[in-house]
C-alpha cells in the first residue's frame, strides 16, 4: 500500500516535517494536522489508511482524538507517538484501538517498519470487508426491490439447480453478468469455478483457442499447450457473454459441445470432455439474427431452453436508489472519500431519468459525482444535463405506479415518434431500443400507428 494516505497529527511542525519527508520518500500520500480537533475535522471529509498521533496537543489531546477517529473508522490504523509515555498511557491507547505505541525519539527505520505492518493489517481487513460487501451488494443489485426483478429472481431460483442451459436477454448494461453470477451462486455448482468468455473480444482463431484450448505448435505463437475455458470451467459454470456475436464457424463447434459434451483443442486429436453448465447472454434478438442468417437456427434452439429477460432500468425505477447507494459507496471507497448521502432532489432526478445505458450509465454518473463532490453529499449540480425528465406532473398522486409508468412510456414514445415523423428506426435509435422491441411496445401500449414508417 505505498499509495496509502497517512495523517500526521502533531503540534510540533519540525516533527511533522521530518515524518512527512520520510513517508513521502516511501511513496505515501501525507496530510498534516497540528492538533486533534483539526485531525478529526479532516477525517470527516477524507478517508485515511493510517494516522501517526501525538498525545500532548492543544485544543484536543491525542487520546480523545484517538477515540473519535476510531469511532468514525473502526478499521483506521493508529500509531501513537509521544515523549510522555507511561505504561498506563500505552494500555489506555491500546484499549481505544491504537495499533502500536512508540516513544519519542524513535528511529525512522523503526517507524517505517511499524507503518508497513499496520498498513498490511489494514489492507487485509479492507480486502475481507470489500469481498463481503461486494458479494452482498451484487445480489442486492440483481434482486432489486421492483416486482419485475423479484419475478426474475424467483425464476432464477427455480432454474439454478441442475445443468439446464440458460439464455439471459436484455439491453446492454442491464447487469446480465451479475445475474449469471447470481445463478451460479444459487446452483449446485457454486463451489466450482465461474468462467466468463466475451464472444466479441478476440479474432476467430484466438476465440477458438480461448474456448477449447490449443496444442503446442497449433499456430504461430502457440509455444505451449493451453487449456481452454471449457476445461477451466469443469465442474462449474461457463458464461458466454454476447453470444450473438460469435463467429459462424465457432457457432457450429459450440453446438457440437452442447449436444455431445466433447471437444478437441486446436491442433489436437484427443477428444476431451468437460462437465460444464452453460449460461449465455445477449443484447440482440437472436430470432431476428437467425432470420437474417447471422446466427445458426439449431444453436438458437439449443440455447433457447430457458430464457430469462432482464428489464431495462427505466422499467424498474424502484431499483435505482439501492444501485445509487451501492455505487456511491463503491467509488467513494476507491477514491478514499466519505460520500455517504444523496440529497433528495438528486435522487428524484436520478429516478426520473430513463437511463438508456441502464446500470452501466448510472454507475458512470455516480462515479463522476463522487469525483466532483467537495464534501460528503451528492447534489444535482454534480451531474451533466440528463435531457428531458419524466413528465409526471400531470399524473395524479394515488395512481398505481405500474399505471403511471405505462402512461409515461406511451406519452414519451408518442412524442418521440412525432419528433421523427413516425420513423420507427430513427425513434428506436433515439430511445436506445431495438426496432423490433419498439414495435412490440407500440402494439402493447396501443399507440396509433402512422403509415409513414420505414
Sequence of strands across the biggest β-sheet: 2-1-3-4-5
Mean pLDDT value: 85
- Total strand count, please? 16
Tally of discrete structural domains: 4
The CATH class of the largest domain is identified as Alpha Beta
Strand fraction equals 5-15%
Radius of gyration (CA) equals 28 Å
Largest sheet: 5 strands, parallel
CATH fold group of the largest domain: Rossmann fold
List keywords for this structure.
five-stranded parallel β-sheet, 454 residues, Helicase, Ruva Protein, domain 3, 4 domains, Rossmann fold, disordered C terminus, single chain, alpha/beta
In short:
The chain is built from 18 helices and 16 strands.
Task: Characterise the protein shown here.
With 454 residues, this protein is of the alpha/beta class. The protein folds into 4 domains: 5-129, 3-Layer(aba) Sandwich (Rossmann fold); 144-311, P-loop containing nucleotide triphosphate hydrolases (Rossmann fold, 3-Layer(aba) Sandwich); 314-382, Helicase, Ruva Protein, domain 3 (Orthogonal Bundle), CATH 1.10.8.60; 401-445, Arc Repressor Mutant, subunit A, CATH 1.10.10. It is 48% helix and 13% strand. The strands form 5 sheets. The chain has a 5-stranded parallel β-sheet with strand order 2-1-3-4-5, with helices on both faces. The chain has a 5-stranded parallel β-sheet with strand order 7-10-13-6-14. Strand 4, helix 4 and strand 5 form a beta-alpha-beta unit. The protein is globular, with a radius of gyration of 28 Å. The relative contact order is 0.08. Residues 387-393 and 450-454 have low confidence and may be disordered.
